[in-house]
Amino acid sequence: VESISVKKIETVEEFKDLKIQKSEKGRGISLTLPPDIAICEECLKDLRYKNKKKYYMYPFVACAVCGPRYTTVNALPYDRERSTMIEFPLCNEDKTSCVKEYKDFNNRRFHAQTFACAVCGPQYQLYDRSKNIIETNSIKEILEITARRINSGEIAAVKGMGGVHLICLAEDDKVLEELRNRKKERKYKPFAIMTPKLAILENLVIFSEKERELLTSFRRPIVILGKKKGSNDGILSNQVAPGLSSIGVMLPYAGIHYLLFDFIGQKSLIYTSGNVSNLPMGIRNEMIFEQLKGLADFFLLHNRTIFQRCDDSVLRVHNDKVKLIRRSRGYVPEYLPLPFEVEISGALATGPELNVTGAVLRRNRVFPTQHIGHIKSLETFNFLKNALFNIKNLLQIEDKEIEFIACDLHPSFYTTTYAKELAEKYGINYFPIQHHFAHVLGLM
Ligand SMILES: [Zn+2]
Ligand SMILES: [Zn+2]
Fold first, then answer.
1. Same domain, yes or no, for 293 and 181?
2. How far, in Å, are 275, 356, 361, 403, 404 from residue 346 at the CA level?
């Protein structure tokens, strides 16, 4: 919601019900699609409320105010039929069915587009390293096995909202050493942790009111915070962020996270993106197995299609201002307003080579893609193209409306060659911009 205006009108009619009209295909300069939203308090209650069987321990519990959005929607207007939830038709068997909830305007799932229940929705499944299903009878059993194996020092690959994570105990020196050995490029780099609740975080790190707000916001980013003295005494291994005085921390944001902590206990977990060097993290199960077979001891995967890959966002607060280090889940596809008016119907920017983010311009609004990574492999390059054109499609910008392409001045970056190709294809200009000059402009 960008603005609300209230107007009083005189009427003699009496209103008896509320209808939501079918979305019309139309377009403006903005997107009506929000970023992914962390599970809300009400859904969290459903998750743990035994008497509501359809949501009790159901990891995908969601409603009209929470759940996946950007990662699951493939076109606008934002409706279930244009999201990957289309694979899971709402159940319609009895009076508590999802269809009833969807149609009842007193229900908080009234016209919610990405919800489902244990009867009709996506499910988790355990696999061993050889892709064999580990037979289980219930989500409870899945969680028990996962918790037991993690608590005994194993590394799990867990598929979530926008991708897959490698998780293990953050207190265990041995498993961290093992993880660093397996993730060869991560010999010394710090890992982010997820902590079950704020009260536990208070023993580990120092945070301000602003940082607390960010940690608990619907965006649930990784916030980089100063370690507390003594935080390494048995609670966190020295191997989490060796030699550093700060650490990246986040709170749970999906049903599966809360359920895992319910079974594992009130301990912190390493929660690091499940990818190998220079490749984007897998979002399809096949790709996840392929990439992580040498890294994870077992896999906890679900059968919901992730349409857009989105890493966790990373930020720090400096002088009470948010500094985004990695802008991704919880922020994309929000726009950044330019501080001046421009009459450009559309433009694309392909970015440099390291830590790339693409961007789409519509009038004076810049829509950055999610964090892409280093364009050093075909897979990452394809990820950039896919994310860029996804935003262009969501904004319904036609090819003929693209007025120019912006790119880095470096002649041998893939992104520069790509900008040239696009410019030729559309018969428009491309503008190479010197890298550091672009940084300077970014500050103005
Ligand atoms: Zn909810
Ligand atoms: Zn259902």
1. yes
2. 33, 20, 5, 6, 8
- Ligand 2 centroid distance, CA of 123 (Å): 12
Pairing verdict, β 298-302 and 156-159? parallel
Q: How far is the CA of 55 from the centre of ligand 1 (A)?
A: 11
**Which ligand neighbours the alpha carbon of 96 most closely?**
2
The sign of the dihedral angle between the CA atoms of 16, 17, 22, 25 is positive
Query: Could you tell me if 33 and 85 lie in one domain?
Result: yes
Rounded distance from Cα 12 to ligand 2 centre (Å):
40
Ligand nearest to the CA of 120: 2
pLDDT, one tens digit per residue, over 243-256 is 899 999 999 999 99
User: Are 27 and 135 members of one domain?
Assistant: no
Note down the domain range covering 234. Answer: 124-302
Please write the tens of the pLDDT for every residue from 12-22. Answer: 777 777 777 76
91 and 137 inside one domain: no
Answer whether the bond into residue 122 is a cis peptide, omega within 30°.
no
Å from CA of 100 to ligand 1 middle: 17
Distance 197 CA to ligand 2 centre (A): 29
Tell me the residue ranges of DSSP E strands in 276-387: 298-302, 314-318, 321-326, 336-337, 347-349, 359-362, 365-368
Ligand closest to CA 101: 2
Nearest bound ligand to CA 100?
A: 2
Radius of gyration of the CA atoms of the chain, in A: 23
Q: ipTM score here?
A: 0.98
How far away, in angstroms, is 353 Cα from ligand 2 center?
44
Overall number of domains in the chain: 3
Distance 46 CA to ligand 2 centre (A): 14
Q: Ligand 2 centroid vs 96 CA: distance in angstroms?
A: 9
Tens of pLDDT, residue by residue over 93-107, are 888 999 999 999 899
Q: How is residue 399 written in tokens?
A: 């090819």
Name the amino acid, one letter, at 11: T
In a domain, 13, yes or no: no
Which residue's entry shows tokens 């190709």?
Answer: 421
The CATH number of the domain holding residue 103 is 3.90.870.30
What separation in Å is there between the alpha carbon of 161 and the centre of ligand 1?
14
